[in-house]
Amino acid sequence: xxxxxxxxxxxxxxxxxxxxxxxxxxxxxxxxxxxxxxxxxxxxxxxxxxxxxxxxxxxxxxxxxxxxxxxxxxxxxxxxxxxxxxxxxxxxxxxxxxxxxxxxxxxxxxxxxxxxxxxxxxxxxxxxxxxxxxxxxxxxxxxxxxxxxxxxxxxxxxxxxxxxxxxxxxxxxxxxxxxx
Amino acid sequence: xxxxxxxxxxxxxxxxxxxxxxxxxxxxxxxxxxxxxxxxxxxxxxxxxxxxxxxxxxxxxxxxxxxxxxxxxxxxxxxxxxxxxxxxxxxxxxxxxxxxxxxxxxxxxxxxxxxxxxxxxxxxxxxxxxxxxxxxxxxxxxxxxxxxxxxxxxxxxxxxxxxxxxxxxxxxxxxxxxxxxxxxxxxxxxxxxxxxxxxxxxxxxxxxxxxxxxxxxxxxxxxxxxxxxxxxxxxxxxxxxxxxxxxxxxxxxxxxxxxxxxxxxxxxxxxxxxxxxxxxxxxxxxxxxxxxxxxxxxxxxxxxxxxxxxxxxxxxxxxxxxxxxxxxxxxxxxxxxxxxxxxxxxxxxxxxxxxxxxxxxxxxxxxxxxxxxxxxxxxxxxxxxxxxxxxxxxxxxxxxxxxxxxxxxxxxxxxxxxxxxxxxxxxxxxxxxxxxxxxxxxxxxx
Lengths: 180, 446
Hints:
The structure holds two protein chains of two kinds.
Chain A: H1 3-11, H2 17-40, E1 43-51, E2 66-74, H3 84-91, H4 98-121, H5 125-145, H6 149-168
Antiparallel strand pairs in A: 1-2
Helix pairs in contact in A: 2-4, 2-6, 4-5, 5-6
Chain B: H1 8-27, E1 45-50, H2 54-63, E2 69-75, H3 79-91, E3 97-99, H4 102-108, E4 114-117, H5 121-133, E5 137-140, H6 148-161, E6 165-167, H7 175-187, E7 194-202, H8 219-224, H9 230-234, H10 245-249, H11 251-262, E8 268-274, E9 286-295, E10 298-307, E11 316-322, E12 325-329, E13 337-340, H12 349-354, E14 359-360, E15 380-383, H13 394-405, H14 414-433, E16 436-438
Parallel strand pairs in B: 1-2, 1-4, 2-3, 4-5, 5-6, 7-10
Antiparallel strand pairs in B: 7-11, 8-9, 8-16, 9-10, 11-12, 12-13, 13-15, 14-15
């Protein structure tokens, strides 16, 4: 291969479709992940009493007994940015100011949904990756404070994916807004 | 057993009245505000409640939940209760006519189809027999009577009149009991061979019922209805000649379950008990009895105890024990459980879990530690996740009214209830004699 050919490749990274596909994989994964993490914060399970179904007939059991079935529903009223179990632990954590907990609880879900959509459509890709990286770091700090080591490890994987995405972001194509 | 379904003539008559009633109701703007004026029909069954004491109040709460049933009359010998009931029903828009004497009620109420009897036990037979002969279907609280002869007369009248007579052993219509019996005990055979049963009702010391002095009944009225004084009227359950004591009052529900679930009657009963705590009762305050049930695969013994001085020992429940598993039932769902023996392999428990019939608890038989070589592995515990969201008496009353309509079959007709109640009378005899009494298959039949 000649020098001129190498220079041509270096100056036109967008033509490396293998890198582009690698970035798309990261962009879509992180986008979908963030979007649905955010949406799930509006989900809740409610116990609903329903007749027990006789498997043989598909009809309600003749005895008339009921069973509780967990039904999932989405609503604004269900929103919980920080799961209740963790929220209780943060409340008793001296290094975690209460106002920060409240603020973080409010912004976490909407921030994930927003940055997820931005990544999926390619709107301010770098910016949304930065915001997600900051969210994951903030979550890491919180989980370290309440001794959730497994959660910290999972977040570490997410941070590695964000870092990988930054390395490949110059190969980004098919974006609504390439700037930022 | 009496035919629970209406004959052709009754059906045509009743549906004609129902149609006419609907037509008339449709023409009246205030039809909904005058329920007592509507004609009784299959769609709307007019009933009277005779006896508005502690049990009558419980039954009323269930009756008010049942669609197509209209309470038009209330009867109680005590003005205090009668006025209380009339006021309560008036407040919820259910005006009733009130009577002190059930014979007056029957003479004046000509548009009744059924009565619910919740009087003291010794009045059950005379009132039920009179109502059946008056052409009414009867739901009568247990015990049928305080005497075997009284109970037998009720079955005889039921057969002679062809009217329905449901006895208030309400567990027989409890959806959880029906589900567990049909799905788990019969269909899945999860107990294997039934070898023993145990039931109890342990209740803490309870003060006798009192009464407001200014509402005390005249001695003549008390005497007319068979009571010596107000204390006896308010606490009739503990007096011989009026009630049957704790085996009858508390135990009859559960001893009835022995007969129902084991599918037969016992061949003997032995008992012990006494009046050891209360000073002003006739009946003993504690009893322990053992029945011997001849099942197809061998004998199963059933132990029953009732304590009225302690609620210890787990409250009230019925346990059926087999070589593969055990079921613990109670009207209180929190006390129910299923236990699997480590040796049980015939039943697919995963299948039962998959169907939603049982739910596993955390501890498994394999995890259990043994402290002695003679000890068997700890039982694996399962829950029965089913429930029903009605008051306990409502399904049994619904079964009664649906049978009147011809859409169901009585779950506890008087002739079946007689077999259960007969062995309770025999248990009382065994306790009194402190001995074993043989019961033949013939004598338990009415």
